[in-house]
Amino acid sequence: MASPTTNIPADDAAPEDLGTVRRQTAVYVYEAPVRIWHWVNAAAILILCLTGYFIGSPPPSMQIGEAVEQFVFGYIRFAHFAAGMVLTIGFLGRIYWAFVGNHHARQLFYVPFWRVDYWREVWFEISWYLFLAREPKKYVGHNPLAQLAMFFFITLGVSFMIVTGLALYAEGAQEGSLTHDLFGWVLGLVWNSQRLHTLHHLGMWWIVIFMIVHIYVAIREDIMSRQSIVSTMISGTRVFKDDKED
Amino acid sequence: MSQIETFYEVMRRQGITRRSFMKYCALTASALGLGPAFVPKIAHAMETKPRTPVIWVNGLECTCCSESFIRGAHPLAKDVVLSMISLDYSHTLMAAAGHAAEAALEETIQKYKGNYILAVEGNPPLNEDGMFCIVGGKPFVEQLKHAAQHAKAVISWGACASYGCVQAAAPNPTRATPVHKVITDKPIIKVPGCPPIAEVMTGVITYMLTFDRLPELDRQGRPAMFYGQRIHDKCYRRPHFDAGQFVEHWDDENARKGYCLYKMGCKGPTTYNACSTVRWNEGTSFPIQSGHGCIGCSEDGFWDQGSFYDRLTNIKQFGIEANADQVGMAAAGVVGGAVAVHAAISALKRAQKKTQEKAEG
Fold first, then answer.
1. Which residue does chain B place closest to A168, by CA atoms?
2. pLDDT band at B8 (very low <50, low <70, confident <90, very high)
């Protein structure tokens, strides 16, 4: 680290600042559709968790008027279904983008299971989080551990929630509806709808746990790692803080 | 087969008027969701077709299915049923007993080979070679397999035969097993419920006679006409559900006003049955109408879905009884705590590194 300069110029760019600027490199990682999906998905998940919790444990009874004039629980369920549909369409769009977008857009959907060097990198990331590694490595896309987490929590987790969610929706839509034709088989798999409700409910907590870890790690990495994290999901650009080799 | 009399002949012999007979046909047609044009078809079938012999066997059960059956809404229904079913063999209703009864069963099987319907009330326990249920000196499972061998179709009456019911609830010490897991080579119609509604039971048999085929079944093998919709979808308290007006305690004002029983653990939203449309005891009422939530008795494993009075099921797989929220909150709490600790260590490490770097210059 350079020693502090006493003469800071008017444009606030000290010579050592300019030195850092020259050393910085940036890569365009997340294209606009990926970024938009991320935030739409985040908003949908937030709404789904809140309304979903209330569907399991409804708020206290409200006496606004006669039952015909009041639709409190109906609106909660409507918000849940609407957000669920947004999540579903968004996820389908995201899968489409995995095909037509850049190669970073594909990382979410697979784990390079048979590659030894991949698992070595995963182990390195674990050691970084266990405070065993002194210096973090640079990663352009998701780091290998993040890729693993994303795959299990988001790709599998959200798929599970979409399938079970639409199966529950199909119950209300009833036999003969499109959702029932497409997802009624799920109920045929678990038989008792109460079981399906419980599985869907546990799935919510799976996603909540992901949210806690994801937000923490994103902020932590933004501060402690050698690249930008949070702003990358806004601008799409991964900025590296140094130009040293790994 | 021509020597077998028709249903109509049996009914007339029992002193039932033609007028009552036509009433029965009309009632059954509407119960099956058929138009008025089908009334004469049902009547015609009843008048001309030889009656279908039915053998009614009982395994592990409580006889609530039989009790429900003989309380059909229309007084004729029970007569139809009783004459329909070959009373040569039905534990609860037949006059014979002992060796004579067992001989009668054998005779019926031989006489109507491949043409009778086997109605099963209850289920066979399989542990200890089936010794937990003995019929005529032999394990029930043997009688069931023997009777099913030459049956045209099998009807599983009630939750016992369809899913196992209370005797199959965890830990199921006798290994009570639903019929469809023992008899795998015959068409099986499940008519679950504890007990099933009488009109549903007579409706299913009448449909099979009139159209000479099994009714349309859903994915679990239940007649779609009665089990195609949830109690919730046709519940008269549904507006209170949508409004968010719930009974909070059994003795509160909301209970008196007849609000939705969702918070009291009503299983209406997860139960497929015709209670909220056909109702019980000549259309008098059904559980929700009398102020108690649905317990989901026509669903698979309904005894193992936690308390009847909890909305969220208790999950015992985690060692202690907890619902999805308690499990999830505990997990989220642990992860949240771990994150906080990790963040604190991270901050310390970072501060340490900075001081070090400063010292190194």
1. B270
2. confident
What pLDDT shows up at residue B232? 95
Domain covering A27-240 assigned CATH 1.10.10.10 in the classification: no
Number of H helices, E strands in chain B: 14, 9
Residues of B in contact with A60 (CB under 8 A): 248
Q: Which residues of B touch A71 (CB under 8 A)?
A: 242-244
Greatest Cα pair distance, chain B, in angstroms, is 112
Segments making up each domain of chain A, as ranges: 27-240
Note whether A53 contacts B325, CB cutoff 8 Å: yes
| B122 belongs to a structural domain | yes
Asked if residue A6 has pLDDT above 60, the reply is no
State residue A127's pLDDT score: 92
Mark whether B32 and B165 lie in a shared domain: yes
Q: Which residues of A touch B313 (CB under 8 A)?
A: 194-195, 197-198
ipTM of the modeled complex: 0.87
Query: pLDDT tens, A79-89?
Result: 999 999 999 99
pTM here? 0.88
B357 touches chain A (CB under 8 A): yes
Cα–Cα nearest to A104, from A177, A193, A31: A31
Are the beta carbons of A219 and B325 closer than 8 angstroms?
Answer: no
Hey, what are B298's tokens?
């026509």
Query: Do B169 and B273 lie in a common domain?
Result: no
**Are B299 and B329 within one domain?**
no
Please report the pLDDT score of residue B82 as a whole number: 61
Minimal-distance CA residue of chain A relative to B232: A172
For residue A242, what are its two tokens?
């140094």
What residues of B are in contact with residue A195 (Cβ under 8 Å)?
301, 305, 313
State whether residue B335 sits within 8 Å of chain A by CB: yes
Counted domains in chain B: 3
Residues B190 and B277 in one domain: no
For B304, nearest residue in chain A (alpha carbons):
A195
Provide CB contacts within 8 A for B237, sequence distance 6+.
B258, B259, B260, B261, B288
